[in-house]
Amino acid sequence: MASRLYTWGRWAVRRRGRVIAVWLVLLGVVGGLGITLHGKVTTEFSVPGIESQQAQDLLQEKFPAAAGGTARIVFAAPEGGTLTEPDTKEAIEAGLKKAAQVPGVVDVADPFTNRTVSPDVRIGYADVTFGEQADSVPQKSKDALSHAVTPVEKAGLQVELGGSVMQPVTEVGGPAEIVGVALAFVILALALGSLVAAGLPLLTAAVGVAIGVLGVQFISRFTEMTSTATVLALMIGLAVGIDYALFIIARHREHLADPDADVEDSIARAVATAGSAVVFAGATVVIALAALAVTGIPFLTVMGLAAAATVLIAVLIAVSLVPAALGLLGERLRPRRRAPRPGRKERAPGAWGLAWGRFVTRKPLIVLLVGVIGLLALALPARDLRLGLPSNASQPAESTQHQSYDLLTEGFGPGFNAALVAVVDTGGTPAAERAGVVSGLHSALADDPGVAAVAAPATNADSTLSVIALVPTTGPDDQATTDLVHRLREQAPSIDEAGGTLYIAGATAAAIDISGKLSDALPLFIGVIVILAMILLTIAFRSLLVPLKAVLGFLLSIAAGLGVTVWVFQNGHLNGVLGIPSAGPVTAFLPVLLIGVLFGLAMDYEVFLVSRMREHFEHTGNPSEAITHGMARSGRVVSAAALIMVAVFGGFVFNHDPVIKSIGFALAFGVLIDAFVVRMTLVPAAMTLLGRRAWGLPAWLDRITPDVDIEGAKLPPRPTAGAGAGAGIEHETEHEVTVR
Hints:
By secondary structure, this protein is α+β, with helices and mostly antiparallel strands. It has four domains: 1-43 and 197-252 and 260-324, Multidrug efflux transporter AcrB transmembrane domain (Multidrug efflux transporter AcrB transmembrane fold, Up-down Bundle); 51-166, 2-Layer Sandwich (Alpha-Beta Plaits), CATH 3.30.70; 351-396 and 520-710, Multidrug efflux transporter AcrB transmembrane fold, CATH 1.20.1640.10; 420-505, Alpha-Beta Plaits (2-Layer Sandwich), CATH 3.30.70.100. The protein is built from 26 helices and 13 strands. It has helices at 2-14, 16-36, 51-62, 86-100, 139-148, 150-154, 175-192, 195-219, 227-256, 263-290, 298-318, 321-329, 351-362, 364-379, 400-412, 431-447, 479-489, 492-497, 507-541, 545-570, 575-578, 590-620, 623-651, 658-690, 699-704, 729-739, and strands at residues 41-42, 70-76, 105-108, 123-130, 158-162, 225-226, 387-388, 420-425, 451-454, 458-459, 465-472, 501-505, 586-587. The strands form four sheets. Strands 8, 9, 10, 11 and 12 form a five-stranded antiparallel sheet that branches. Helix 1 packs across helix 12 and helix 7 (175-192) packs parallel to helix 9 (227-256). The chain is elongated and about 90 Å long. It starts with a helix and ends with a helix.
């Protein structure tokens, strides 16, 4: 592989103008399609086949009036006041009359007629039903609804909006994300020692992310996609795009530190060695993200494939656009020799990594034990992991969605925001028995101690489908509510005997169903990515123990990352610092996403770090010296790459969207732990204990394992600056700039 990439790298340098032009044309084409022909994204997480989704599909087919999106207008009178005061009541009725005129609205419930007013008559709500499902309601209708209730606010009432229609749109590009990118630039400048070199990874990563994200937006025209998918593609694409370019540029500048090094050969050699590692590392990320398809959950599959495509683009840019840009810059990236300072001993390159490597390998068993015990301690909170989907309680405290949640809890109890719906399909029940079956179910539901209130059944036109709304006594995030859903579904056999079918649905039931589906898919998902990664790493390092050690280290990173995420988001620690409005279950798909993404990124650092160790071992045959050499050569760059990841992911921690916030935090902390504790500490300690055995491969496996040579052992000898085609690169660069 290294030899082919070496040839490719030289070609990219010599044809740099064409390579850059192709990427710019691709950016223009994909950008144009993504901007002009993009589809719509949804904020809903639906999973075909689960009970709650079957109920929703049935309602859409047989009872459309009950399947439309709902906006809930919540009114609250000032302390000491009531909603029934003449002026207040008149203002509410006027506002609801305007709400009924909003395009797409088919019904507005009167809070006084429907008795949706709290016992103290201070808080009430009105449900506004649209003819379309929630994610199909246009933004202009939402804005019109917000404008319609303005007169009610002027009358002195607090008015907040909730419901499925009013879910906020995920947005990125705020101050926190910009600060994250700025920190990445500072880290690049310190790691590369050049502002020009530091700017190049950001520029090439921006090209890759733009192509990836705009391409995803264009694809959303043909397939349903959540808003989280585009944000994840942006987050992952930006982080790996910067890192992959950093690895190649750092290796190029390392070569150029030799004043006799030829620029073109240096670029090609960097693409051959660091580029080989990029290809293998990128392959593990793509595999891990694409493996989300094995969960059988469409929105997660699309999310994984979108991010995987963006990572693939980042790899292609790293081995084509980056060397072309390096060729364009030519000698300007050669490190300047600094005059030695009088009386001060100059530190050799890689001195920090060398010192750390020697420290870790001096007492490897103690380091390994302390590190493993520490990570297991961080993982302890994960034992209490509860999964769910974020409710309005997770929205920013100042948002209207969060305010409406708090008002409804205050006025009607914690279970009101966990409302469930019993959907009864009586199409197979004799017409004369349908009313009795539904009435019996209504009584059974009301008798459950976990149910606070049950509404009267609503039936469709031909009486084949009935809907019973009920309110639990506990909130949507409580374990008691999950237990209640399972108990209510135990009523299904009695309905089946009567020829009908019972479904327990609603947003809370959907969150429970999705969590269960993801929990069931988790073992298969882990198995797929571990096996495929073991195969890839065995091919890369021609070793069995190195891949096994890499996987075990990854499992420790995942456990620690999940433990701290539970400690923060579920147990409620650091809420004020991170701007988390309330504690609640961990987002249902976060563990799967964390495993997929972190596995790929962990393998990135494993490949870059261990490949330098193997490179030295191949030349010297000294395993202990190879470890410290690999740390000296790669420690600084791997540390910089990890800090860049943390900066980029950390910027998303302060996004208002609770899903993006939790994903950003889990990835940032997971990368921090994996890079600095596992890869930079436990890996060299374990490699020291394994010694020469780390590089062993059974004879039968050695014969069938392809030799991909990612270390560049078969590359041609290095030419000097005065030899070969690369000698005239500066002249060539000036000519291209002038002519083209």
